[in-house]
Amino acid sequence: MGGFDRPVDVGAVRGLVRDWFAALDRHDDADVLLALLAPIGLVLHLPGATVRDREGLRAWHADRVSTYFDETHRAHDVRVRVVSPRHAEVLVRVDWRASVWVPPAAGSTRVGGESTQRWSVVPWHDGKPRLRTCVLGGPTPVPGSVAPRAARPTGLGAAA
């Protein structure tokens, strides 16, 4: 039985959420993230960019890993709703924290926010779920954090 014939598995979708944020936190190579995405119908509304293809994800990722360090994403309140055997909708609340250094500052600044993400997930030919679309709500800066845009040099765009 091919992966397209298998229904979406809720546990595997939760694993996809975990793997996505763990890869972001570790600053894994963009190829690790690309392996978690559906290559057809991809539309990710990410902080600072809308990604529709592999090159767009690579550019977004390069900017992110060169800007932020000590990143942590805590996905909580992960809700998976299987819409059909070949499609699940996922609602994820995410707490994101990171450090950023903007020259000529003497030290880094902590940034962070709370966001709600809506994902569309589909099973792929290997049977594993893939992220097809993502829309972010927020982020709302957390108390004691500098807003990400304020912490970045002008012209570099916004980040989560």
Share of β-strand residues: 35-45%
Uncertain segments are 150-160
Largest sheet: 6 strands, mixed
| Name of the CATH class | Alpha Beta
The helix content, as a percent range, equals: 25-40%
CATH names the topology as Nuclear Transport Factor 2, Chain: A
Order of helices and strands: HHEEHEEEEH
Instruction: Describe the strand arrangement of the main beta sheet, using strand numbers.
Output: 2-1-6-5-4-3
Instruction: Please report the total strand number as a whole number.
Output: 6
Average pLDDT score: 88
Number of domains: 1
Give the second-level CATH assignment, the architecture.
Roll
Radius of gyration: 16 Å
Count of alpha and pi helical runs: 4
InterPro entries: NTF2-like_dom_sf
Region (Disordered): 141-160
Protein name: SnoaL-like protein
Could you walk me through the main structural features you see in this protein, from its secondary elements to its overall organization?
The structure is a single chain. By secondary structure, the protein is an alpha+beta fold. The protein has a single domain (3-151), classed as Nuclear Transport Factor 2, Chain: A. Helices cover 25% and strands 41% of the residues. It contains 4 helices and 6 strands. It has helices at 10-26, 30-34, 54-67, 148-151, and strands at 43-46, 49-51, 68-84, 87-100, 109-123, 129-141. It has a 6-stranded mixed β-sheet, covered by helices on one side. β3 (68-84) and β4 (87-100) form a beta hairpin. The relative contact order is 0.21. This is SnoaL-like protein. It comes from Saccharothrix violaceirubra.
